[in-house]
Every structure is written in C-alpha cells, then in structure tokens.
Amino acid sequence: MKMPHPHNLLLYPATRAGVPGLRPTDTKTALSAAALTLFVESQDAYTREHGRRVAAYAERIARQLGLAQADVEAVRCGGLLHDIGKIAFSPNLVCNTQTTLSAAMRAEIRRHPEIGRAILETLHVARPVVECVHYHHERLDGSGYPCGLAADRIPLGAQIISVADCFDALTTDRPYQKGKRPEEALSILETLAGRALSAELIQALCRELPPAAGASAAHLHSGRTGLH
C-alpha cells in the first residue's frame, strides 16, 4: 500500500488544524494519513471506487467555479472520504442487494455522515474536509440529514459533493439498478435543482460533460483521486 505524503492538504499545519505545535513532518501527522489510507482501503470495492469518482467530479465542479486551489483540494479530499462512515455498517447492510430497506437499515445509513465526521475529527483532518463529509446529505430545502440544514447554511464544499455523489449514483450499475446515461442523470438532477441541489452546481457539472452527453463521463477523472 502506498503511503500518502504527509504534506497532503487533508492534514493542515497547526494554525489550521488546531493542534498546537503540529508540523506536516510530525509522526502524528504521518500516522493520521496512514490511518486514513487504511480506512479508505478497508471499504468495500463499490464504496471505494465511488469515492474516487465523486472526488474527480467534485474537483472539476470546484474548478469550474474558480475556487482557490486549497478549496479545490479540500473538496477533492472530501469527495474521496465522503462515505468513510460506512465502514461501520453492519454485515447485513453491506451485503444487502434489495431495493427495500428495513427501518433499522435506513436509520443505520443515516448515521454514516456523523460517523465519518467523528473519524476525521479524531485524526485532526482539516475542518473544510470534515464539513464536506458531515453535510454531504443535507439538502437545500432542509429535508436532508443528519442536521436538516437548509440553503446557505450548508457549506459549499458539501453542496458540491452532493451533486457529484448523486450524479455518480445515477450513472453507476448497482445490483438493483442499471446505471443511466449521463444525459439522463443530468435531467434527473435538474428536477432537483433549487429544491434539493444547487442549480448553479448542476450547471457547472454539465459544463464538464462533453457536448454529446451520451459519451462516458470517465473523462472527468483527473487522475488525482487518491490520498497522495
């Protein structure tokens, strides 16, 4: 397993991470980065690859918006780690291939953003990345979870990842669902614009797709989707 470089922006110096005296070369920082790698690699294959695709889509949306490089990197890392809380899922949920979930399973799913937040805070991950993970299931109309935030109370990074997450979920084959073509997925996202997802961010994603939206969305992958 390739160790991530401790200068990675996931782990900021003391002035940003709030850890007195912590420098990028500290053993504590390197161990935290190693722990994150282990968490990512311990995810099931779908969740791991989904995280990499979401990171790529989110990064390209952030660049479309003209965000500063540090903010782009935070969004990319947040996309990679957005479902890290799912490592706490029970075997019954991990192995489930049915479209109908029990109330207990739904409740377990809704806990993963909080679990992800707790993991990343323990490892002193930068606050913007933690916010991306914690709030990526919030929705503009307040119908999301875990906090029921609405509109501009949802951090921009989390809103970006919400759009990227939904797009990838719609275009990926699952045991219970055939992946949709990119143009079909965009049409679905547009029905959610202004209500659940940001219309501006959906348009930013659309601009990253080829003119013939039926082409594969794989071109969005920048090659920088790992922790290193």
Descriptive notes:
With 228 residues, this protein is mainly α. It has one domain: Orthogonal Bundle (Hypothetical protein af1432), CATH 1.10.3210. Helices cover 53% and strands 0% of the residues. The protein has eleven helices and no strands. Helix 9 packs across helix 10. The longest helix has 20 residues. It is globular, with a radius of gyration of 17 Å. The N terminus and C terminus are likely disordered.
Strand content: under 5%
Largest sheet descriptor? none
> How many separate domains?
1
Helicity range of the residues? 40-55%
Order of helices and strands: HHHHHHHHHHH
Total beta-strand segments: 0
Shape: globular
Query: What is the CATH topology?
Result: Hypothetical protein af1432
Catalogue the unreliable spans.
1-25, 214-228
Instruction: Quickly give the structural class.
Output: mainly alpha
What's the name of the CATH homologous superfamily? Hypothetical protein af1432
Over the alpha carbons, how many angstroms does the gyration radius reach? 17 Å
Number of helices: 11
Average pLDDT figure: 80
CATH class: Mainly Alpha
- At CATH level 2, the architecture is Orthogonal Bundle
End-to-end Cα distance: 11 Å
Structural key phrases:
228 residues, mainly alpha, Hypothetical protein af1432, globular, disordered N terminus
Concise synopsis of the structure shown:
The protein has 228 residues and is mainly α. It is built from eleven helices and no strands.
Helices and strands, with pairings:
Layout: H1 14-17, H2 27-41, H3 45-64, H4 69-81, H5 91-94, H6 103-110, H7 112-122, H8 127-135, H9 156-171, H10 182-192, H11 199-208
